[in-house]
Design a protein that fits this description.
mainly alpha; 151 residues; globular
Length: 151
């Protein structure tokens, strides 16, 4: 099967999932999990604005959804809206202070915006939470090198 055929099958599957979720939402219109899943099905179709609308609606009902906060931040970052992305990563980190993921995502977003010192701080905080993570160590080391070049 060609890549195009596989892509078309996946897209059809995502559309079918979207239709099923919309049907389920008729029964439970205020269910944050269903709204979030609808957003995910829509995001997989490449419809970022519609997906963000669903994600934000779900978070309005239940703001304590760590995974959804990350996905929302990722969608914003993918659109180049890094300040918005940071807001969601920070909220994630408030809910899950023991985890590194939000700080890593913050570091990535800050680095893209060339806030290298702030990115280094974020990676350092992530590494504090996962001291044996070689990927985080590498990101921090490379960012510190950029900081030293900034002098």
């Amino acid at each position: 099967m060609s890549n195009r055929a596989t892509g078309e099958r996946l897209l059809a599957s995502y559309r079918k999932t979207e239709a099923l979720l919309r049907g389920a939402l008729e029964e439970k219109p205020d269910c944050p999990d269903l709204i979030a899943q609808l957003g995910k099905a829509i995001a997989l179709q490449g419809r970022t604005e519609d997906a963000l609308e669903c994600y934000l609606a779900s978070l309005e009902i239940d703001p304590a959804q760590p995974g959804l906060l990350i996905r929302t931040g990722d969608l914003y970052a993918g659109e180049g809206c890094f300040e918005e992305a940071l807001r969601f990563y920070e909220h994630y980190q408030q809910l899950c202070p023991e985890r590194a993921r939000g700080y890593r995502k913050m570091g990535d977003s800050l680095l893209v915006q060339e806030y290298i010192w702030s990115a280094a701080d974020a990676y350092s905080l992530a590494l504090d939470r996962e001291p044996n993570n070689p990927e985080l160590r590498d990101r921090l080391d490379k960012t510190v090198e950029l900081c030293l070049m900034d002098f």
